[in-house]
Amino acid sequence: MEAFKTIANPLSSFFVIYILLLLANAASGKTHYHDFVIQATPVKRLCKFHNAITVNGQFPGPTLEVNNGDTLVIKVVNRAQYNVTIHWHGVRQIRTGWADGPEFITQCPIRPGKSYTYRFTIQGQEGTLWWHAHSSWLRATVYGALIIHPKEGENYPFPKPRRETPILLGEWWNANPIDVVRQATRTGAAPNVSDAYTINGQPGDLYKCSKQDTTIVHVDSGETNLLRVINAGLNQQLFFTVANHNLNVVGADASYVKPFTTSVLMLGPGQTTDVLIKANQPPARYYMAAHAYASAQGAPFDNTTTTAILEYKSASCSSNCVKTSPVFPSLPAYNDTATATAFTTKFRSPRKVKVPTEIDENLFFTVGLGLQNCPRGASSSNCQGPNGTRFAASMNNVSFVLPSNYSLLQAHHQGIPGVFSTDFPANPAVKFDYSGNVSQSLWQPIRGTKLYKLKYGARVQVVLQGTSIFTAENHPIHLHGYDFYIIAEGFGNFNPKTDTAKFNLVDPPLRNTASVPVKGWTVIRFVADNPGVWLMHCHLDVHITWGLGMAFLVEDGVSELESLEAPPLDFPVC
After folding, report:
1. What are the boundaries of the signal sequence (predicted)?
2. N or C: which end of the chain has fewer CB within 10 A?
């Protein structure tokens, strides 16, 4: 027996180790390798060819599909004429801030002819995210879907749909978007609005030279499909609907939500919404359509409508449907804030969640536009904003300025002085009637590269208060490196004495981009459990161009697992 034991024990130990290795491999997920080549590609839209910047010659760019727990290794080679970075919008990037992507925040740009490999793991996220350029206005054409399926062997918390279709809403300029923003930066005026909206890169039937390429989504009668709707537009919130069909919302920003039914979605740039759509109508062709939600009174906007076609593929439809015009949906009015609000306030988490209740950092950030006086000695051609000014934007009256010689994360990690300060104000320096008539003495923000420092593990509440400086509008505010709970929103000025009664601390939705209502406020909470430098900004690119942003510096915790990883060897240099 003793002899048998001496033989059996090594064998059993081997099998235990083998099983543990299998389990560890299953837990760690797969690794997906991709090559992204940034290049100029001739793209024809609205009757004209443009040399658009694309990934791998595709517009929109490739869809990435992974499972929760998988790792992505993406080598980006820049063969375009512009500097570029790629941001993986909504990915938590736990300890991997070097892979987050915003230019001069977490990395220096990838110069023409150079490359950089992004490495990160999806941890605890399922649903729809997306990726896009985060350098100047390149994301007008450099973007694509990032779809995160449940871990292998796990299921959706709803019946498995028959098909899944990404629906990427975009904006198209009949010009080079880089030229558009450079002209606006030079003149100080607002940039030209887009010439079209697109669905999966195509404007649709209502635009010239576009009908033959309209996006078509096929369905069979009776089936339930999943639409993964992404607002990849640069500067415009959008309403989206499908003629004669209800949309059952089941997820947003790669978090599941308590399902609810609606006829229309409103998405700010950066936001995603997963909806189930049942093909329960008479077999025919039905338009999907999107147009602007334009909340800024008097501001110019693109008032066109993009369409795609939901086409039933049943036998009774195959010969006749193509000859008939698709059914057109009813879209809300451009300024229908009531519909936008009714939609955004329906979101709930599927069950009770752990919202921070004890708060360590209670912050109040104003969010809005401003005007800079014309600099002394400047030409009037450089001050073509209202009354000879230049447009600006700010949080707490600080207009965010990007560094140019180092990224903020690099400066923090290496202790390089003079790149940023950590005196971003926790509250406005001056209290005023934020959503009312604001004195013009408060219209001019100061410029600076100011960060707000958070200790690891700090429980944070931020009141995002919209202002009426120059004009009030809805602002989609995105926080990098984190999801946050939206515990309340409302109109007017936030009142801590009365509005705290509106806080949902039971089942608030988990998002990465919050729509701050026009002339209103939103309250978010999160735990600072991801060390690094994390940008928070308006996802209307015109506004971040003007300075509507700030960054949190989250310190390392105690252990290695609470600390930022070392930068990769191929990290771009400025």
Report:
1. 1-29
2. N
- 510-534 CB burial, b ≥16 within 10 A, e <16: bbbbbbbbbbbbbbbbbbbbbbbbb
pTM: 0.94
Task: Tell me the two tokens of residue 503.
Answer: 């806080």
Average pLDDT on 78-99 reads 98
List alpha helices for 233-382, DSSP H: 337-344
CB proximity list for 482: less than 8 A, separation 6 or greater: 92, 512, 526, 530, 534
Task: State residue 188's pLDDT score.
Answer: 97
d(C-alpha 89, C-alpha 570), whole Å: 22
pLDDT at 148 over 90: yes
* Whole-number Å distance between alpha carbons of 465 and 523: 9
Show the DSSP H helices in 252-347 as ranges. 337-344
CB 107 within 8 A of CB 85: yes
C-alpha closest to that of 80 among 51, 104, 102, 116: 51
Residues 6 or more apart from 100 whose CB is under 8 A from it? 87, 88, 91, 93, 106, 107, 480, 481, 532, 534
What is the per-residue pLDDT for 7?
Answer: 37
Confidence of residue 321 (pLDDT cuts 50, 70, 90): low
CA distance 222 to 161: 11
Contacts of 273 (CB under 8 A, 6+ apart): 128, 229, 249, 251, 252, 265, 267
Single-letter amino acid, residue 82: Y
